[in-house]
């Protein structure tokens, strides 16, 4: 048979080549099925019809599935650079831009060719001999910004400072203050660094305290709160280059420019031309924190940790505040259920064959990709670099791993949750529950395949009425959320001594050092005991007494899951509805036994509360408060819309109804007639999740949001004002739960568990700071800190936010 010339073969397949349109998503940086990139040994193959990218091992599967034979092959080869090339420190809080974090990345040479499958016939590109359609298509692909880049923007360029509105007419008090050129100290404590000069009255005060205990004592910002004097300049940043000085505007809550800074400094006798820079600016300090990825203070600081490589020890690249995702997924893929479902029992090829035309939007495919990336060991190889420590000989090499970037997985899992699509830090608990919900949905109808059920368990509430009769309410959940009873701390004497020491130091104007701080220690057993303890429910409506009374509620497990996840409620509500993190240690043993927490069910001889009397169907028709509706109508709103607003806010008031109305004007069913089911749970899920993160149950959060016009603060107040809301309905279900009359389909066994994973959080809020995972693997604890994976020297078992336990069989 005559062999076809490569160019003729290409021409015969021109119908399988498309010139991309501006709206087409072009993948060119990472394989859709694996974590291969143009830098991988086989390079990357871009389908010139679908613009999906595939690694060398996967491109053949795409040809088999689609029949598309023409690919643009991209290969990046590292350029040789002098070993003594100086290391540049980043000067901008940015990635991939001049002066940003990628300055010292190796340089690569990129080559292209046109490849025709199945025989991998290669034609050079660029080449004038190629058909024009192929040249235009390949040029467009090469010049296009990759879909991966568009969907995962990583350029965090710091905002340009603007001129403060308070600088132009700044009031300065003639109080005789003259600032010396050196020897500064905070007027309210002994701090001699991180000092700020208030430009109104000349007070020198220390800056804010950082969440990790470093920084100042908040005296400068407290002075602003007391006086309202708006501008302060950081001493030590003032030089002849006045624009580089760090001026902060408290009311504008940002670093600003003061065009009259020279005049404002001269008022206090400061000659800026003679000053030398001794302090970092706010932006520089932020850069310094961002480049110090070791977080020495909080992640086994000072410990020399041995890096680990191989199957199951692959790190995840931080995509920008994505540590909540990385820490959670590392623990999830330690479980047998998820390993079996997406790795052992499902190959990449099998997942691709059942995936839709675009595998980048398929959760099953991207979970399989992530599982194989984490567990195969293919991407957990040591990369040797010169150690950054200049005190070590330049030839010393430290092995590191690059990790894999979970971009496509994050994009898929975040598609139904706008917050997770952002680059902001998120709550690991909220992500974990959302993730399990999506996994359960994707396996709907295939319960035997659903790995999420390994975390699911049944809970039964027993409500004892003062009449002596009882009611039972069952529900299912994925996590056991525990309050922390601080009054059960085991180190009360040490705490009392610390309180006295702190009071003495404050009276002397001194601060307590980090080494002197004593935190309460609460045993995990006390938290579990608190969960099981009887809880009084006031104003409980008894169907036996036909009146409100006080009841006792107790809770117990109806089934024990394969994996038990405990959530420590370290965040409580302070005055003004501000979440505050409890500074507390939880003493967690390696083995726990919760068999005593199993619900005993209906006791013999126990009399159940009678069912509520049946209500006439017509009386169940929702009705709107006429006064609320009349007031809204008088403002010009539609009568039907006003009735719906009143109904959906449970007739809470005009303001609540108006808030609901304004936020639902564009609802597609706003003009539909009112029906019995119209006042359903149509509330903003993100607001429900916020209330759940505060520790409230799902159905209570929804009811509160409806009653408050979806105002978070008013909803929180409503909950506290209605303490019986959590049990007002016998079929109420808890956070992310499913109402259940039985536990069919749930795994069950003994209540003895071994601790296998910890997700720890460092920071003042779940939406800032950093998450790290510690996992028990092959008999040793391992720290997973984004892309870094190492043997853990001192796992922080007492600092966990989420604890993962595995049931001990038998």
Distance between the termini: 67 Å
CATH class of the largest domain: Alpha Beta
Give the tally of structural domains: 6
Percent of residues in helices comes to 25-40%
Strand content: 15-25%
Helix segment count?
A: 22
Major β-sheet annotation: 8 strands, mixed
Q: Could you tell me the number of beta strands?
A: 29
User: What is the CATH superfamily of the largest domain?
Assistant: Cysteine proteinases
Low-confidence stretches: 91-97, 152-159, 286-298, 386-396, 615-620, 677-681, 726-741
Radius of gyration: 31 Å
Mean pLDDT: 81
Q: Predict the CATH topology of the largest domain.
A: Cathepsin B, Chain A
CATH architectural name of the largest domain: Alpha-Beta Complex
Overall structural class, as computed from helix and strand content, comes to alpha+beta
Basic shape = globular
Task: Describe this structure as you would to a colleague.
This protein is α+β, with helices and mostly antiparallel strands. The protein folds into six domains: 129 residues, Zinc/RING finger domain, C3HC4 (zinc finger) (Herpes Virus-1); 96 residues, Herpes Virus-1 (2-Layer Sandwich), CATH 3.30.40; 204 residues, Cysteine proteinases (Cathepsin B, Chain A), CATH 3.90.70; 125 residues, Cysteine proteinases (Cathepsin B, Chain A, Alpha-Beta Complex), CATH 3.90.70.10; 39 residues, Orthogonal Bundle (Helicase, Ruva Protein, domain 3); 27 residues, no CATH class. Helices cover 25% and strands 19% of the residues. The protein contains 22 helices and 29 strands. Strands 16, 20, 24, 25, 26, 27, 28 and 29 form an eight-stranded mixed sheet that branches. The chain has a six-stranded mixed sheet with strand order 6-11-10-9-7-8, covered by helices on one side. The protein has a five-stranded antiparallel sheet with strand order 2-1-3-4-5. The longest helix is centred in the middle third of the chain and has 16 residues. The protein is globular, with a radius of gyration of 31 Å. The N and C termini lie far apart (67 Å).
């Amino acid at each position: 048979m005559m062999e076809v010339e490569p160019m003729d073969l290409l021409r015969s397949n021109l119908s399988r080549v498309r010139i991309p349109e501006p709206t087409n998503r072009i993948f060119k940086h990472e394989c859709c099925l694996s974590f291969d990139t143009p830098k991988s040994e086989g390079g990357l193959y871009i389908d010139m019809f679908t613009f999906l990218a595939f690694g060398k091992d996967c491109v053949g599967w795409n040809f088999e599935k689609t029949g598309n034979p023409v690919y643009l092959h991209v290969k990046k080869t590292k350029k040789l650079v002098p070993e003594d090339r100086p290391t540049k420190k980043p000067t901008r809080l940015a990635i991939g831009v001049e002066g940003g974090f990628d300055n010292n990345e190796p340089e690569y040479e990129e080559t292209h060719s046109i490849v025709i499958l199945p025989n991998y016939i290669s034609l050079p590109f660029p080449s004038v001999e190629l058909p024009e359609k192929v040249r235009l298509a390949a040029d467009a692909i090469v010049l296009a910004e990759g879909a991966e880049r568009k969907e995962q923007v990583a350029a965090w360029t710091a905002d340009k400072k603007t001129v403060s509105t308070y600088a132009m007419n700044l009031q300065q008090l003639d109080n005789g203050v003259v600032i010396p050129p050196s020897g500064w100290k905070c007027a309210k404590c002994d701090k001699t660094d991180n000092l700020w000069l208030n430009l109104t009255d000349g007070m020198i005060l220390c800056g804010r305290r950082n969440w990790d205990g470093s920084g100042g004592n908040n005296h400068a910002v407290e002075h602003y709160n007391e006086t309202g004097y708006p501008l302060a300049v950081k001493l030590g940043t003032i030089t002849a280059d006045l624009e580089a000085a760090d001026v902060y505007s408290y009311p504008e809550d940002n670093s600003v420019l003061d065009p009259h800074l020279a005049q404002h400094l001269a008022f206090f006798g400061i000659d800026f031309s003679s000053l030398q820079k001794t302090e970092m600016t706010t932006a520089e300090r932020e850069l310094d924190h961002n480049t110090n990825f070791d977080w020495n203070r909080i992640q086994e600081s000072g410990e020399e940790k041995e890096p680990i490589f191989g199957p199951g020890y692959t790190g995840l690249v931080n995509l920008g505040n994505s540590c909540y995702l990385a820490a959670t997924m590392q623990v999830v893929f330690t479980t047998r259920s998820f390993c079996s479902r997406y790795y052992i029992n499902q190959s990449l090829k099998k997942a691709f064959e059942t995936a839709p035309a675009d595998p980048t939007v398929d959760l099953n495919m991207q979970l399989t990709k992530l599982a194989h990336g984490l567990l195969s060991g293919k991407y957990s190889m040591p990369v040797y670099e010169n150690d950054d420590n200049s005190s070590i000989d330049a030839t010393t090499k430290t092995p590191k791993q690059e990790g894999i970037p979970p971009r496509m997985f994050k994009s898929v899992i975040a598609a139904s949750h706008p917050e997770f699509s952002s680059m902001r830090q998120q709550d690991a608990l909220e992500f974990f529950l959302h993730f399990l919900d999506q996994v359960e949905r994707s396996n709907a109808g295939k319960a035997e395949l659903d790995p999420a059920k390994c975390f699911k368990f049944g809970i039964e509430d027993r409500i004892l009425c003062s009449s002596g009769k009882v009611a039972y309410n069952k529900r299912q959940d994925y996590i056991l959320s525990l309050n922390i009873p601080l009054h059960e701390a085991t180190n009360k004497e040490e705490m009392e001594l610390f309180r006295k020491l702190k009071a003495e130091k404050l009276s002397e104007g001194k601060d307590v050092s980090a080494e002197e701080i004593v935190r309460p220690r609460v045993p995990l057993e006390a938290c579990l005991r608190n969960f099981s303890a009887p809880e009084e429910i006031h104003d409980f409506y008894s169907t036996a007494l036909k009146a409100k009374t006080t009841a006792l509620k107790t809770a117990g497990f109806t089934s024990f899951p394969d994996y038990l996840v405990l959530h420590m409620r370290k965040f409580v509500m302070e005055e003004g509805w501000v979440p505050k993190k409890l500074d507390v240690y939880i003493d967690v043993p390696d083995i726990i036994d919760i068999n005593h927490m199993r619900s005993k069910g209906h006791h013999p001889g126990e009399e159940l509360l009678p069912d509520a009397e049946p209500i006439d169907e017509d009386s169940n028709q929702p009705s709107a408060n006429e006064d609320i509706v009349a007031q809204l109508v008088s403002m010009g709103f539609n009568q039907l819309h006003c009735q719906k607003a009143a109904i959906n806010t449970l007739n809470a008031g005009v303001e609540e109804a108006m808030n609901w109305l304004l936020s639902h004007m564009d609802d597609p069913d706003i003009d539909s007639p009112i029906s019995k089911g119209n006042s359903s749970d149509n509330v903003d899920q993100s607001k429900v999740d916020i209330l759940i993160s505060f520790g409230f149950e799902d159905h209570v959060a929804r009811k509160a949001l409806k009653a408050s016009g979806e105002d978070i603060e008013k909803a929180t107040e409503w909950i506290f004002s209605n303490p019986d809301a959590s049990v007002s309905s016998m079929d109420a279900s808890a956070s992310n739960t499913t109402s259940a009359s039985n536990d069919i389909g749930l795994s069950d066994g003994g209540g003895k568990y071994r601790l296998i994973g910890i997700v720890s959080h460092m920071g003042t809020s779940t939406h800032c700071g950093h998450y790290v995972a510690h996992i028990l693997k092959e008999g040793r604890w391992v720290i997973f800190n984004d892309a870094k994976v190492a043997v853990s020297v001192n796992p922080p078992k007492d600092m966990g936010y989420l604890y993962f336990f595995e049931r001990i069989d038998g």
